[in-house]
Design goal:
2 strands, 9% strand, 5 helices, 111 residues, mainly alpha, elongated, two-stranded parallel sheet
């Protein structure tokens, strides 16, 4: 089961994060993705994770490649090897796109 939370306004997300963690069963794993390591959502998720013995992972600096690699992984649990591979993939997807030599590039060359 995948549950997603998105916070795009100034609403109080504290109870939602706590509830997400509290609702995890003994065999469940919770993964919380955040954008900024010093951001309020990350701080709140990390504090709530530290206050429980449940299997909760908090990942910060999330990009779409990392998120998809974890969410679409067929494994029943995301172990440290899978997580490290996903983190490496996420890091590799961050780069400056090269400047084009010419604006006249065919579809075959682009893709």
């Amino acid at each position: 089961c995948v549950k997603s939370l998105a916070f795009m306004d100034a609403s109080d997300f504290t109870l939602e994060i706590k509830s997400f963690i509290d609702e995890l069963g003994p065999a469940d794993q919770g993964i919380i993705f955040t954008d900024l390591s010093g951001g309020s959502v990350n701080q709140n998720a990390t504090l709530n994770k530290m206050g429980t013995d449940k299997d909760v992972v908090v990942i910060t600096g999330t990009n779409l490649g990392l998120l998809m690699e974890v969410i679409l992984n067929p494994a029943e649990r995301i172990d440290s090897e899978i997580l490290n591979d996903a983190l490496e993939l996420g890091r590799s997807e961050i780069f400056e796109c090269p400047k084009s030599e010419t604006a006249d590039i065919s579809d075959d060359e682009f893709f």
